[in-house]
């Protein structure tokens, strides 16, 4: 994807150079205490047998998914 594509599609690009270990711990603690609710971010759970198709869909730019989880024990989408 090029800069011209970002502009034409009016995409917002957010980047981060790095984070500290303390940032990671703080995020995990926020999830654990319920200060940050992550459940609504997960838009699909897929099995390993669907991994290739899910990656293709996510890479297409036309997916409805925001965040997916790959569950080796799952047999299908939920």
Description:
The structure is a single chain. The protein has helices at residues 3-8, 21-33, 51-60; strands at residues 44-46, 68-70. It has 78 residues and is mainly alpha-helical. The chain has one domain. Helix 3 (51-60) links the parallel strand 1 and strand 2 (68-70). The longest helix has 13 residues, at 21-33. It is flat and about 40 Å long.
Strand content bin: 5-15%
SS-based class: mainly alpha
Mean pLDDT: 87
Radius of gyration, in Å, reads 16 Å
Number of distinct beta strands: 2
SSE order, one letter for each helix or strand: HHEHE
Poorly predicted spans? none
- Order of strands, main sheet, comes to 1-2
- The N- to C-terminal Cα distance equals 30 Å
Tally the helices.
3
Largest sheet: 2 strands, parallel
Total domain count: 1
User: Level of helix content?
Assistant: 25-40%
Shape: flat
What would a concise description of this structure say?
The chain is mainly alpha-helical and 78 residues long. Helix content is 37%, strand content 8%.
Provide tags for this entry:
8% strand, mainly alpha, two-stranded parallel sheet, flat, 78 residues, 2 strands
What topology emerges from the helices and strands here?
Layout (H helix, E strand, L loop, with lengths): L2 H6 L12 H13 L10 E3 L4 H10 L7 E3 L8
Parallel strand pairs: 1-2
């Amino acid at each position: 994807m090029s800069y011209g594509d970002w502009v034409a599609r009016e995409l917002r690009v957010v980047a981060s150079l790095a984070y500290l270990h303390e940032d990671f711990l703080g995020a995990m603690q926020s999830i654990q205490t319920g200060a940050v609710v992550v459940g609504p971010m997960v838009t699909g759970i897929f099995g390993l047998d669907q991994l290739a198709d899910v990656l293709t869909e996510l890479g297409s730019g036309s997916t409805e998914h925001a965040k997916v989880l790959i569950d080796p024990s799952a047999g299908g989408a939920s």
